[in-house]
Amino acid sequence: MFVHSFFVKGLAHVSYIMGGKQQCAVIDPRRDVEEYIEAADAMGCTITHILETHLHADFISGHLELAKRTGAQIIAPRSAQCSFPHKAAGEGDEFELEHLMIRVIETPGHTPEHVCYLVTDRSRGSEPVGIFSGDTLFVGDVGRPDLFPGMADELAGKLFVSLGKLMELPDFVEVYPAHGAGSLCGKALSAKRSSTIGYERRYNPSLQTGTLETFKRLLLAEMPAAPDHFKRCSATNGKGPELVESLPLHRALDPASFNEAIESGALVLDIRSAAAFGGQHVPGAMNIDITGNFPTFSGWVLPVERELLLVSEGDLHIERALVELRRVGLDRVKGWLEAGIHGWAMAGFPVASVKQVSVHTLKSMMEKGGGFTLLDVRAKQEYEQLHIDGALHMPVPDARERYKEIPPEPVVCICNSGHRSSLAASILLSRGLTDVAQVPGGMMGWAAAGFSGECRLCQNVHGPKTGQKDFSRAK
What is the rounded CA–CA span in Å between residue 308 and residue 335? Predict the structure, then answer.
């Protein structure tokens, strides 16, 4: 038996190829499937099965793409009642893949229909060797049960029972989860991407709670906000996503055609850095840096019903952006600005800018008594770990609706590095505010300049985004 993993940065999604000598299965594939096909070919294996542990909420799955390309059979939870051709699987069902026996364990909790796949390598022994646990059991955490309105308590109870099933497995069974640190499908995932049942039984905090009520209370406390695309991806995956080849064509647009598309209602998404966006950009554009957590924040803040127009440095990063947008179900990309922002300005179209305020300038402004609103747009846990006295807290996605709560201008946006603060500035500008600035380097730069201690959540970029609070504050 071999297992090969694939990690998607940003979404922190882990998928797998698992197989024997000539045949293999892909577990929880992402939508862009070429890498699985290339890997299977390199191993001399044929992809015969596609295993879905559940209807993923945080990304669009590649099960239909992969089935179309390979002819492999899709296996999905029976209770999901998927609309596409597949083999429905439930508790106790078994199927073979050469010398591998795969048994289905129903594990609802993160979602109502979740299953895990327990694998026995009969060429080595009669006991199970590994389990593909999806979003039921992570390394250091468990799946969040609060993604379905009004069902958090019920699903938490089911998750407690499901985890009990997994804890009956032998200690040596390897655990292969569908996410690692950085995913919002849990709240304290480890950066380690695999584990064992025995290690998780002993050291996973969510498995140390004892009673059901304690488990529910601790699990549901301080859960991070769920992005907007979590509300639609599960349904799309159950129905069956559109094949990429059937999506509308996109193309490079000259400035005049780009402007016509804006006037027809398309939204401009600028994927350049905060510094480049701050220098000049198309008025009304949203800025999500392609080098940051691009897919998560795109799925979170971009309206799925509107066509998108991309701005990059020429054609740089366009293909990457298209792939990552499709991963979160943003399929309506009309095209991109062929001449870049320089060509746009040369064609006589208006440009806007965002003032960049260094941490040293910000410190001076604070010492002079303000006269502006410092808007901290990080997540709640980051803000509670460390923030500048007097800052107004508003997570960047909330700025879309809560911008009216911000006191009269000017406004200076800050996050941990500058990515989210630039996005926040672009949101505020699109809502009609005009005197908006952002802080390059953010709280990391503030700490590095010696103006405060370090924020552990900002510094530990690969670690969990929750944990023991340190209510220290920057002066």
Answer: 7
